[in-house]
Structure formats: C-alpha cells, structure tokens
Design brief:
about 300 residues; alpha/beta; 8-stranded parallel β-barrel; about 15% strand; oxidoreductase; Methylenetetrahydrofolate reductase (NADPH)
Length: about 300
C-alpha cells in the first residue's frame, strides 16, 4: 500500500519569486572534507545531480579529498574537485591526483585555479599551466576562476590588466577544448558591480558562461571575517553598513537582495552571461540548502517519494 496519502507535507513552502526560483535552478555548492563529514546525508539537502565543488585547502591529504568525492559521486552528485596550482608540486603529482579522482570517484570535471598561497610549492603557479599539461583532456567540464571585484594578488596595482589577459587566454583555450567551460567567481554582495563586470567581459569578447559566487546565509561577523580574508572588494561595504545597524547586527545575513536583483536582470536580459549561482556555504551547508529550497531551488526528493517507499 502506498504511504503517499499519509505523508503529504504539512508545512508548504512559502510562495517564491519566480524570477529568483528560475535563477537558482542548477545551482552548485562548495564543501570541504571536514565540513562534509558533519553532513549525515547530502541527499536530504541537495537536489539530485547538484554540482558539488570539493575545496582543497593546503594541507588536506589527497586521500581525504578523494574519499569525499567518492562519497558524493556515489550519492548521485556531480563532483567538481579543486585543483589549486600552487599546492601541486609537479606534473607527476597532478597526474596522480587526476588518476585517483577519475579512477576511484568517477570524476570528469574540475575547477582549476591558482590557489590561495603566495609561494608555489613546486612547478605550477596558475590554472593556465595546469591546462597546458594536457592532462585534463578527457574531462567533460572545466571551470576556472573569475573575479568580479578584481584580484590584488594578480593585479597589485588595483587594475584588471593581468586578470583580463588570463581570461583572454582561457577564452582561446575554451574555443579549442571539447570540455564545457565556465568562470566560477569569488563571492560578492552587491548586484550592480557584478552586472557591470559581466557586461564588461562580454564587451571584451569573453563569452565563457559565468557561475556567480554567492555567500550563503551566515552570521554577519562570520561573513565579514571571510570576506576580508578572501579579498572581497568594494561590495564589502554592504556588510559593513549592515553591521552599523544594531537592529540587523544580530540577524543572519541572507543573499536574498543580491540574488533577487541579479535574477530580475537575467529575466529582463535572457542573454546575460551569468548563467548559474555557486554558493559558498559560510554559515553551514544545511542553512544554505534550506535557504535555496525556500526560495525556489529544487529540493531533493523526500524519502517517501523514492522507490524504497513505493
């Protein structure tokens, strides 16, 4: 006998903004091995097939990275591990990582980036060098970094000269690669500068789709700490202004305003080159997933809808 009639949701989700709901479809989210360990069942939080980035922090053993990727892949998620160039000693290490990810976890997509350390551990210092090895030729999807507010590590003078030169190189690579490519960006908190940056990319001939980085719900103090550490630029003032309002200081930040504005722009300009949202769950994966569901991001199927209960 079916259990469905007795297990209908008693707490229907609030009405959602259709533009925001559409913008959230096919969102991705980031985890680390140590945060993934705290999640009992990702299938209860994320839509089936969600792209989950596995962030590689310097010092994390590759075995832990591969184990996390294997778990997520087994649960039906599209796994995209980080390959930070500056913590990879040489081509042999890179080949070993790729072999382990693909062989043990079935990984065929990756985020290639320079990495957050100042001094490279070995031969590589940029994502372009990783691509040049040819070792990712069998991957179906390759993402590279984007910086809506610039990157002082790359352009110390505050310009975007070196960043744009790298993006033009990656654009040319994308035109010769069989892999689908996208720019996965650092998080920001203000829509207008993001829109201006994305439009400037298009005007410069950079047509790689953009997956915009967004910080998920979190305590304001937590976000400010991460934003400063990650070099978030002018949009940090959005958080600082909020922190000055005592009535909002203790309330958790939610990305509703910035995403609603981006979603409205996307609805008005369907060819807008921001195609997806990528979440940094700085306040926790569960809180981020719940916010996405409440705002129209597809929820994972309830247990009673799976074959196990039918």
């Amino acid at each position: 006998m079916s259990l469905l009639p007795f297990m209908k949701r008693k707490d229907p989700l609030p009405e959602t903004n259709p533009e925001l709901a559409a913008f959230l479809q096919d969102y991705s989210i980031e985890v680390m091995p140590r945060t993934a360990e705290k999640v009992e069942d990702f299938k209860e939080l994320l839509p089936a097939g969600t792209r989950v980035y596995v962030a590689h922090i310097d010092g994390t053993p590759i075995a832990d990275m591969v184990a996390t990727a294997k778990r997520l892949s087994r649960d039906g998620f599209a796994v995209m591990p980080h390959f930070p160039a500056r913590i990879i000693a040489d081509q042999a290490m890179l080949a070993d990582w790729i072999a382990r990810y693909s062989g043990e976890a079935g990984v065929d997509q990756a985020l290639l980036l320079a990495g957050g350390i100042a001094t490279p551990h070995g031969d590589f210092h940029s994502a372009m060098q990783l691509l040049e090895t040819g070792l990712f030729r069998d991957f179906k999807r390759l993402h590279v970094a984007g910086h809506p507010e610039g990157n002082r590590d790359i352009d110390k003078d505050g310009s975007d000269k070196n960043v744009m030169e790298a993006l033009r190189w990656k654009q040319r690579f994308s035109e010769t690669s069989d892999a689908k490519m996208a720019l996965a960006t650092q998080f920001a908190f203000e829509a207008a500068p993001i829109i201006a940056w994305a439009d400037a990319l298009r005007d410069a001939g950079i047509t790689i789709p953009v997956h915009i980085g967004i910080a998920g719900p979190a305590k304001l103090q937590t976000l400010i700490k991460f934003a400063i550490a990650c070099g978030v630029g002018p949009s940090l003032k959005v958080l600082q202004k909020r922190a000055m309002d005592v009535t909002k200081l203790l309330l958790p930040y939610e990305p509703t305003d910035v995403l609603t504005e981006l979603a409205a722009h996307k609805a008005a300009q369907p060819d807008f080159n921001i195609t997806n949202v990528h979440f940094f769950p700085l306040g926790g994966i569960k809180a981020n997933a719940q916010w996405a569901i409440q705002n129209g991001g597809e929820a994972a199927a309830p247990a009673y809808l799976t074959k196990e209960y039918q």
